[in-house]
Amino acid sequence: MSWLSTLFLLIASLSFAQTRTIKGRVIDAKDNTPLPGVTVKIRNSNSGTATGVNGTYSIVVPAQTAALEFSFIGYETKEVRIGPGDEINVGLALSSKTLNDVVVVGYGTLKRREITSAVTSIKAEDFNQGGTRSAMDLVQGKVAGLSITRTRGNNPNEGASLQLRGVTSLSGTNGPLIVIDGIPGGNLDLLTQDDIASIDVLRDGSAAAIYGTRGNGGVILVTTKKGKSGEPQFNYSTYLQREVVDKKPVTLTAEEYKAVTTPTNHLGADVNLYDMLINKDNLSHYHNFSATGGTDRSNYRAAIYYSDAQGIAIRNNRQQYGGRLNLNQTGLQGKLTMQINLATNFNKADLLGGSTGDFEQAVQRNPTAPIIGPDGKYIETTAFNNYNPIARLQQELSERDQQTLSGDAKVTLEVIDGLHVSAFGAIMRNNWNDRQYRNRASRSSQNDYQGGGYAYKRNDNQVNRIFESTIDYSKNIAGDHDVQVVGGYSYQYATQEWFSANNSGFLTDAFADWNLGNGVYLTQGKAGMGSSKEDNTLIAFFGRVNYAFRKKYMAQLSLRHEGSSKFGNNNKWGNFPSVSVGWMLSEEEFMKAIPAVNELKLRAGYGVTGNDGWANYLSQVMLSTGGSYLQNGVWYQTYGPSKNPNPDLRWEKKKEYNIGIDFSLLNRRLGGSIDYYTRETKDLAINAVAQLPPYVTESLFTNVGTITNKGFEIYINAIPIQTKEVTWRTDITFNNQNNKLKSLSNDKFSINLLEFGGLPSPGALGNAIRIVEGGTIGNFYGKRFAGFTDQGKWLFYKKDGSKAEAAAMTEEDKTVLGNSIPKYMASWSNTVRYKNFDLTIFFRGKFAYKILNLQDLYFANKQWLPNNMLKRGLTVHGQLNDAPQYSDYYLEKGDFVKLDNITLGYNFKLPTKYIRSLRLYATGRNIATITNYSGLDPELQDNGLTTGIDERGFYPRTKSFAVGLQVGF
Q1: How far is C-alpha 839 from the geometric centre of its chain's CA atoms?
Q2: pLDDT in tens, 18-55
Q3: 875 half-sphere exposure, CB direction, 13 A CA radius
Q4: Cis peptide before 693 (omega within 30 of 0)
Q5: In Å, how far are 193, 279, 322, 407 from 134, measured between CA atoms?
Q6: How many CB atoms lie within 10 A of CB 9?
Q7: What is the pLDDT of residues 310-335, one digit of tens each?
Q8: Nearest alpha carbon to residue 545 among 183, 176, 216, 114
Q9: Direct distance between the N- and C-terminal alpha carbons of the chain, in angstroms, rounded to an integer
Q10: 10 Å Cβ neighbour count for 58?
Q11: Which end of the chain has fewer CB atoms at under 10 Å, N or C?
Q12: Residues contacting residue 97 through CB under 8 Å, at least 6 positions apart
């Protein structure tokens, strides 16, 4: 046995000789504090460990191991060769990406630490996961204060509604300006989720003032992916997505309907119309293929894509394809650079389906009424506000064929060290053709066109031309002073023209809308035709200076001097200044003694921005056609003024103050920002009542009124867990906003109040929302519910507190009932990575607002019979037996929390040199909603002035499920 023992000892000694144990400690290279949770790996291997609480580690490595790799979030990865000793101590430097992360701002970039305004920068790796229908879906819930609402759910032909920090205008644009690769007014249709490198949001006035007249609603800067040097690489991304209805309205079944109506209304069928309108076989798919490569002097990125987005409603889809090309060229020993971008989108949309009116019919149409009769013809019912939506979808068409193109080029010359001169030119063209046809047998044709069918065509063409020239200079002086100066000129000319024609009286449906002149209405003088063209010009001179002293004290000044053809002759030009300052407290000696604080910066800013988001020519006399007269056997058309001129029409101007703090703590495991803002928008433009004479018409578009907004925003990011195998990152956003109409008067005009949200028939129910001077924007205004009589008639409170029926109520009895705009918004995003798995869970919510439930108001009322109705009309509202009335009886709390996104992904590591990366993922969106609201979905239109009203016919909100694949070659 001695020889066996000897063999075992020999093997053990050989094994021991083939491994060794390395120990050491990892610290922050700047302040020498220990770093726990640092990943320590054997180079080119998955074997590793993590540092403990005091930054120490111990790892067993093969004897031939050449190097160890040390990595930690927020720090530069460091590779250290193993020497003869058994101890390796390492100091990790803060990542240059963390310290010097480049943030896109107006007409340039700044390092993150140099930002003195409220700016949020989101990189591609932080976008929301899964398939998206809009580029803005990528950042929903990621930017405090930015409201992104898809008011028609996942309707593929509806865009997202955007609003930042509340309402800023009564007549103009309330959404932020979109700038794509430097092009103001960029078209989101030209973006796919795989083309975007970053989205930077300029949230306050000091950041947005550089865009002057269009910056009132903030600015969203989208930067697309560009070419890079290196070996050619290819990427392919795809997903398949399925939609299912989240929540359906509960209506009376055919049997329940027959139990509460007379036999004359029983038509023999049993129809679930809502289900018939749903596209149960919907399956959307998306494909994007890109290539990049080149050298340091010449490189490119090219991408092509195709998507087929199927809506949850039948006849509701959008097919699109296009591409994006980026070329970069450098010459003159690196002094001259040229960048070219081309982007296209071609889409064809079926616009017929998805109408809210169709789904209104699904709730109210008699469920015993057949859709098609024995003769094969569609059956129309004669009840109030009824039509057969299935017949409409089969007998009509409404399509759009659209082409959007964008091209830009930028040439930059470095004249001397630090001084660059650039010229930028861009053109955007958006063209679409609409076509409609209604068959001769359709209800519309029978009722409105004597059964002769109806055809319509319209062609629109929008062109936007831009030229900008800039000079920028950067210089470090004596090591302590950093100066960056930007100056420039901007010119933008936009045109829109359209032509439309319609006709009826066709003998056959065979030609549809392709033989428009064949209808007899043309010869009878009943056909329609129209055309128009309009344009506007914007010219600006701008400049900005950034200064930093010892990277501790920072200041920014900017001024934009801008002129627009939209404004009166006396106010063509306006000035938009801004100033902001920052103090990097963490660079002070008294703060360096606090090891828990990695970065602490105070910010304060003030800026003036403008708004020109309304129609052209409103400052000028506008003429319209009048009657015709006969002279010498010839008919002549007359013209007359239809709008008063206003040579004093000027910008809406918003003055905004913002103070903020940015922080990073605990070895950058905890960070975020807090901002408080107050803003005042003056010279609101609105149609005011004009006196006759001296004015020639009864209204004048003029500047009157002031809106104030204030609120705070919080962003927190943290890494609660970071080990060798598990990392958990969490992000929280929270914001509060308050919007008030400070005034509606000036020395010439006085407006008592404004009303919005007109309620549909039947009944003269009026407007739901009223704004008065000094009042909060979005207030519901109406009668206060006081109960029912024994007969089920309405009772309301009068002004003196007594109760009365509806007929006795007066205007004086009405009052503020609640507010329709969410006072708070919040989101919570979590990403967990375990080995090759990644899991994202995303919640968001809105709080402290009311919803007017129009579906209950109209359809949950027994008076709606013999139309069908919601079952709630017999249960929750069973006591009611009166005509519909608008009051706070139908106002409900809208507060909700959504489990908005769950994504599970796996990154494969394949033993092949041909596939660089491969990720497979599954995503669920709008998975669950926690709310007390009784309607279908509490997330409604909450941007602008008509908010919080749940329409009678609501496009179905959906849950969506997708599986996707991302491959790098």
Answers
A1: 24
A2: 788 899 999 888 777 788 778 888 877 767 888 877 88
A3: 8
A4: yes
A5: 8, 21, 15, 21
A6: 10
A7: 999 999 999 999 999 999 999 998 89
A8: 114
A9: 58
A10: 13
A11: N
A12: none
